[in-house]
Design a protein that fits this description.
This protein is α/β, with parallel strands linked by helices. The protein contains 15 helices and 7 strands. The chain has 2 domains: 311 residues, Thiamin diphosphate (ThDP)-binding fold, Pyr/PP domains (Rossmann fold, 3-Layer(aba) Sandwich); 48 residues. The longest helix has 28 residues. Bound molecules: thiamine diphosphate and magnesium ion. It comes from Streptomyces chrestomyceticus. Keywords: Oxidoreductase, Pyruvate, Thiamine pyrophosphate.
Length: 411
C-alpha cells in the first residue's frame, strides 16, 4: 500500500485515529494550479471584448519594438554595440510587462529585456549603454523605477522581492514586476525569491518568459516540471500559464496579477510561452542546436501577425494607421543609429573609479599597471609621430644629439 493510498482511506473494521491536522495540506492547492492550456484571447471568441484603443496601442508598440530589436542587432554587426540579446518574437511579453505597471511601480529586467525598459519610457539610447560596454547602466534606476538590466541569472528576483516587501512595510503603493527566462528558473535565487515572496505575501509578480532555450539547452533538459507555472504551487502562490505571443492575453493576465499584488493578495508566477526567433545573442550560432523548421513554426505564431489578424477582422488595420506606425518606428531607429554612430569619449581609468569606496590593493596595482601601459602607449605614439614627420627631421635630431654629446666631452 502506498502512502497516498494509506492516507486516502481507513481500513474498514479496525480503529484508526484521525491524523493530526498538520498532516493535511495547509492550503488547498487546486486554486493555485495553472490552466491546462495557455490562456489566449486572440483567435478566440473572447477577443471581441478587447478594447480597440488597447489593441491599436499594443500593436504600435510591438511594431516599434520589433524595429528596435532589428536596429540594435544591426548595430552589433557594425561594431557599434558590444552585445545584444534580441527579444524578437518576445515583444508581446516585453510590451505587456511595461504597460501593466503604474508610474510608481518597479520593473526588474534581465539582459534580454531592454525593450521592456524602453516600452516603460526609458530613452532607447540610454537603455543600450551597458550593452555598449560602458561601466554604468546608462540611466538612474530610481528615476525610472527600472532596476539595472541584470546579467547574472535570476539575481534580480530576490532584489524585486526585497524592494516590494520594503515598500509594503513602509505603506507605499508599489508593485514590483520581475522578468526571468526559463533557464533562470533553475537558479537558487529563483527558489529563494519565490519562497520569501509567498511567505511575506510581497506585492511582486514574476514573469517567466519561456522561450524554449537557455542558450543551447532546451527546456526539457533543465526542468522536468509539468510546466514552469506549476512551480508556483510549491511556494503557495497562484501560477498562470499564458500564450506569450498574445499581447492582449498577457496584458490581462499580468494586469490581474499586478492589481492582486497591489490589493495585498500576494505574489503570482506567470509563465508566458514564447520563442526566441534570433540567436541567444550576436555571439551565438542557433543553427547548431535547433532546426529552421522549428523557428518557422513559431514565425507562424508571430505576436505582430496575430495582432494584425485581429485588427484586420475589426477593420482597424487601415493603411493610414499602418503607415503612421511604421514611420514612428523608423524615426526611432534613425535616432538610435545617429546616437550610436557617435564615438563616446571614454576614459579607461574609469574602470577603477566606482568599484569600491576604498580601492583594494589589487585594484590599486591594476590601476597603476593600466596607467603605465597607457603612458607607454602614448609615448610610443609620440615617437611614431616624430618619425612620421620626415626622414630629414630625423637626421637633424640624430646629428643634434651627437653634437651635444661631443660638446659635453670637449672641456
Ligand atoms: C548565474 C549565471 N550563470 C550562468 C550565466 C550564463 N548564461 C547567460 S544567459 C544563460 C541562459 C539563460 O537562459 P534563460 O534564463 O532561458 O534566458 P534567455 O536567454 O532564454 O532569455 C546563461 C546560462 C549567467 N549569466 N549567470
Ligand atoms: Mg530561455
Amino acid at each position: 500500500m502506498t502512502v497516498l493510498e494509506q492516507r486516502a482511506g481507513r481500513r474498514s473494521g479496525s480503529y484508526w485515529p484521525a491524523p493530526p491536522p498538520a498532516w493535511r495540506p495547509r492550503v488547498d492547492p487546486a486554486p493555485l494550479l495553472p490552466d491546462a492550456e495557455p490562456y489566449r484571447l486572440l483567435g478566440t471568441d473572447a477577443a471581441g471584448r478587447i478594447d480597440a484603443g488597447l489593441l491599436t496601442d499594443l500593436y504600435a508598440q510591438l511594431v516599434r519594438g520589433r524595429r528596435y530589436n532589428a536596429q540594435a542587432t544591426a548595430l552589433t554587426r557594425q561594431g557599434r554595440l558590444a552585445v545584444y540579446p534580441s527579444s524578437t518574437g518576445q515583444e508581446a511579453c516585453q510590451v505587456a510587462a511595461a504597460r501593466v505597471l503604474k508610474e510608481q511601480d518597479w520593473l526588474f529586467p534581465s539582459y534580454r529585456d531592454t525593450l521592456a525598459a524602453v516600452a516603460r519610457g526609458l530613452d532607447p539610447v540610454q537603455a543600450l549603454t551597458l550593452l555598449r560596454g560602458d561601466w554604468h547602466t546608462g540611466y538612474d534606476p530610481h528615476e525610472h523605477r527600472i532596476a539595472p538590466l541584470c546579467t547574472p541569472l535570476a539575481t534580480q528576483l530576490p532584489h524585486a522581492v526585497g524592494l516590494a516587501h520594503a515598500a509594503r512595510l513602509k505603506g507605499d503603493d508599489v508593485v514590483a514586476l520581475a522578468l526571468v527566462g526559463d533557464g533562470g528558473t533553475s537558479e537558487g535565487d529563483f527558489h529563494e525569491a519565490l519562497n520569501f515572496a509567498a511567505v511575506w505575501q510581497a506585492p511582486v509578480v514574476f514573469l517567466v518568459q519561456n522561450n524554449g532555450f537557455a542558450i543551447s539547452v532546451p527546456l526539457a533538459k533543465q526542468s522536468a516540471a509539468p510546466s514552469l507555472a506549476h512551480k508556483a504551487v510549491g511556494y503557495g502562490m497562484p501560477g498562470r500559464l499564458v500564450d506569450g505571443n498574445d499581447a492582449p492575453a498577457l496584458h490581462e493576465v499580468l494586469g490581474e496579477a499586478v492589481e492582486r499584488a497591489r490589493r495585498g493578495g500576494g505574489p503570482t508566477l506567470v509563465e508566458a510561452l514564447t520563442y526566441r526567433i534570433e540567436a541567444h545573442t550576436n555571439a551565438d550560432d542557433a543553427t547548431r542546436y535547433r532546426t529552421e523548421a522549428e523557428v518557422e513554426e513559431w514565425r507562424e505564431h508571430d505576436p505582430i501577425a496575430l495582432m494584425e489578424r485581429e485588427l484586420t477582422e475589426r477593420g482597424l488595420l487601415t493603411d493610414d494607421f499602418v503607415q503612421r506606425t511604421r514611420d514612428g518606428a523608423e524615426e526611432m531607429a534613425a535616432a538610435l543609429r545617429d546616437h550610436m554612430n557617435q564615438d563616446p569619449a571614454l576614459d579607461p581609468m574609469d574602470l577603477f573609479a566606482h568599484v569600491y569606496a576604498e580601492r583594494t590593493a589589487q585594484l590599486r596595482e591594476q590601476e597603476a599597471q593600466l596607467r603605465a601601459e597607457l603612458e607607454a602607449e602614448a609615448a610610443d605614439a609620440e615617437k611614431d609621430e616624430e618619425k612620421a614627420a620626415g626622414g630629414a627631421a630625423e637626421g637633424d635630431t640624430a646629428g643634434g644629439t651627437a653634437r651635444g654629446a661631443a660638446g659635453e666631452e670637449r672641456p
